[in-house]
TrEMBL record:
It holds the Pfam family CK_II_beta. SUPFAM superfamilies: Casein kinase II beta subunit (SSF57798). It comes from the Eukaryota. One of its GO terms (molecular function) is protein kinase regulator activity. This is Casein kinase II subunit beta. Belongs to the casein kinase 2 subunit beta family. PROSITE patterns: CK2_BETA (PS01101). Tetramer composed of two alpha chains, one beta chain and one beta' chain. Tetramer of two alpha and two beta subunits. Regulatory subunit of casein kinase II/CK2. As part of the kinase complex regulates the basal catalytic activity of the alpha subunit a constitutively active serine/threonine-protein kinase that phosphorylates a large number of substrates containing acidic residues C-terminal to the phosphorylated serine or threonine. Residues 230-245 have a biased composition (Acidic residues). InterPro entries: Casein_kin_II_reg-sub_N, Casein_kinase_II_beta-like, Casein_kinase_II_reg-sub.
Length: 266
């Protein structure tokens, strides 16, 4: 809330809104947007329909807010200002200047480190799974294991993922290819008393489970399977019948051959 910001007058309140926002707990993922970017209306195209009290919110973000509003209206404008800043932030961080600022924060591990042990504390990047607001919260992407994680702090976990966008992390590594880490080839190996678990046994268990899962999916889809358990038993029975029939035919041929020799007087 705004009372967390130590200011004595309303002029301080409006003059340092962005400083207050960036320094507030829970907003460590955000970088400061340049004033030139905020004042260029081209960069704000379409946001007036997505943000309530758009003009008042923009005035507050750009430090020109001078409306004598009551507490309720001021709170609504403050909420809209935070939302507006987040939406503009998603556009700003894919610019050259914005990427440079986020790279600095990335190198300092301001976004945290990967919780996966095998990644050895590799720094993370914030990202959104959607570009539309109010769909999903922010996630953290690890370029080493190429997986995403939830933030540890509840303050960070409540940030809208649209404030970073689904393309930012990919764009950053396209512009800064030297930051792309070597992929982690190490995997955890289960051991018993220091000895690795037999790989073929683990592979067999995986194959059995995969085969069972596939059988269930195929049956649920209504597709006839040739080698289900029931059909395997039927196939074995058919094989036995065919083998018995073959033996019977063989005995008949032998009998017919013997009868022919007898008729010929052999």
């Amino acid at each position: 809330m705004m009372e967390d910001f130590n200011s004595e007058t309303d002029s301080d309140y409006t003059s340092y809104w962005r400083d207050w926002f960036i320094s507030s707990r829970g907003n460590e993922y955000f970088c400061e947007i340049d004033e030139e970017y905020l004042t260029d209306r081209f960069n704000l195209t379409g946001l007036n329909t997505e943000v309530a009290y758009y003009q008042y919110a923009l005035d507050l973000v750009t430090d020109v807010f001078d409306l004598d509003a009551d507490d309720d209206l001021r709170e609504q404008i403050e909420k809209s200002a935070r939302h507006l800043y987040g939406l503009v932030h998603a556009r700003y961080i894919v610019t050259t200047r914005g990427l440079a600022k986020m790279v600095d924060k990335y190198k300092k591990c301001d976004f945290g480190k990967c919780p996966r042990v095998m990644c050895e504390g590799h720094p993370l990047l914030p990202m959104g799974q959607h570009d539309i607001p109010n769909v999903s919260t922010v996630r953290l992407y690890c370029a080493k294991c190429e997986d995403i994680y939830n933030p540890k702090s509840s303050r960070h976990a409540s940030i809208d993922g649209a404030y970073f966008g689904a393309s930012f992390h990919s764009m950053l590594f396209q512009v800064y290819p030297s930051l792309v880490p070597a992929k982690s080839l190490s995997r955890y190996e289960p051991r018993i008393y220091g000895f690795r678990v037999h790989a073929s046994a683990a592979l067999a268990r995986w194959q059995d489970q995969y085969r069972e899962d596939m059988r269930v999916r195929v049956l649920d889809a209504g597709i006839l399977v040739k080698y289900t358990e029931e059909e395997e038993m039927e196939a074995e029975d058919d094989d036995d019948d065919e083998e018995q029939e073959f033996e019977t035919k063989g005995e008949r041929l032998v009998g017919d051959a013997a009868s022919g020799r007898m008729d010929m007087g052999i």
